[in-house]
Amino acid sequence: GSKSSSGSGASDAVVAAAGVHTVVVVSFLDEHVPYRFKVPAAPLTLKIFKEYLPRKGNYRYFFKTNCADLDTVIQEEVCNDNDTLPMFEGKVMARVKSIE
């Protein structure tokens, strides 16, 4: 029984990937207190983000990020499920707006 299976490495890769996560802070416009949670993925796409949302519904998603052009902080809308979410100071800062 050789326990030093450094050759396979497949299981090691899974363990390493499990340590990767993104901190998400979500504000729903009709609630005062934001949600904060970790998603075991990085970078985060809109599709993954929506799977972890505490509420499901028809929403528009805005993400806080620095705008290089304006040299200021903006809320950038992301609509495409495959798009990578903008980060702000190492976190995903989201505002979720209900579509009436």
From TrEMBL:
CC per GO annotation = beta-catenin destruction complex; nucleus; plasma membrane
Q: Where is the DIX domain?
A: 19-100
Which GO molecular-function terms appear in the entry?
A: beta-catenin binding; molecular adaptor activity; protein kinase binding; ubiquitin protein ligase binding
Q: What Gene Ontology terms for biological process does this UniProt record contain?
A: cell development; negative regulation of canonical Wnt signaling pathway; positive regulation of proteasomal ubiquitin-dependent protein catabolic process; Wnt signaling pathway
What Gene3D superfamilies does the record point to? 2.40.240.130
Q: Which UniProt keywords apply?
A: Wnt signaling pathway
What Pfam families does the record tag this protein with? DIX
What is this protein's record name?
A: Axis inhibition protein
Give the source species.
Answer: Biston betularia (Pepper-and-salt geometer moth)
